[in-house]
Specification:
With 307 residues, the protein is α/β, with parallel strands linked by helices. The chain has two domains: 159 residues, 3-Layer(aba) Sandwich (D-Maltodextrin-Binding Protein, domain 2); 117 residues, D-Maltodextrin-Binding Protein, domain 2. It is 41% helix and 22% strand. The protein has eleven helices and 13 strands. The strands form two sheets. Strands 1, 5, 6, 7, 8, 9, 10, 11, 12 and 13 form a ten-stranded mixed β-sheet that branches. Helix 3 packs across helix 9. The longest helix has 22 residues. It is globular and about 60 Å long.
Length: 307
Amino acid sequence: MSHRTTAPIRMRAALLASLFLAGAVPAYAAATLDKARDSGSLKLGYRTDTRPFAYHDDAGKPAGYSVDLCGKVADAVKAELKLPELKVEYLPVTAANRFEALQQGQVDLVCGTATPTLARRATVDFSIPIFSAGVGAVVRLDTARRVRDALAGRPEAAQPIWRGAPGLLTEKVVFAVVGSTTIEQSLIDALKARRIVVTVTPVPDYATGLQMVLDRRAVGLFGDRPVLLDAAKRGPSAGELLVIERSFTKEPLALALRRDDDAFRLIVDRTLSRLYRSKDFAPLYTRHFGAPDVATLEFFQSVALPD
């Protein structure tokens, strides 16, 4: 068969292949606003174990600071699409599957405690910051004073803390940390840098880690400090827990969304920015964390984007 004969066949085959691939593109690859308009719903993913950011309330419904912010975004999407009856669905996600749920189109926005990192930006996108948090540690109230002082950064006599003090923190000491989070790796890196040999045990959620501490299977649980403070204050075992007076890192938290969706990202950031500058923000913040101080309000003013 001549080249002149086979060329049209190849072109037709290529065209058919491209049409097949185009039809194989999953529905969630569409822009979020188009997806919401076509499906009649906006799907919000939320963590169930990160109170006061996102959790189940007494009625089993999604609640929390991050959930409230996502609700504001949902209202903005309804206005943008001129679809006041747009259905808003809340779907639970975990620390381990939240970004995969975004990529697979199971949810359109993750309302929780996500820390933007360069590695994560390779697969998902993030809003402007919704909070400035730090990694903290919670221990039992009756934990040995030497261990509590070590975690708090108070030196014993003249010896620097976190320098591998013999007999203080050894391989017999177990720390729990929520897996699939930036906290897990930052804790491991910090301990290695300070030549501390301990066992770091990843747990699937905060409830599991807190129970390990209460059962003395772990000396402490590392996690987002606001979440730990809430657990020590309002949890069922609040009187048995103590949050160390120290933040081990400072990390911005954000809402997570799919990559390459500028239109939806603009709505998210515009909604948050206008909220931070409005009189409605302080009462919303107060409901979950108490009245914001001047430094907190200045932080949100600084991250809000101008119109």
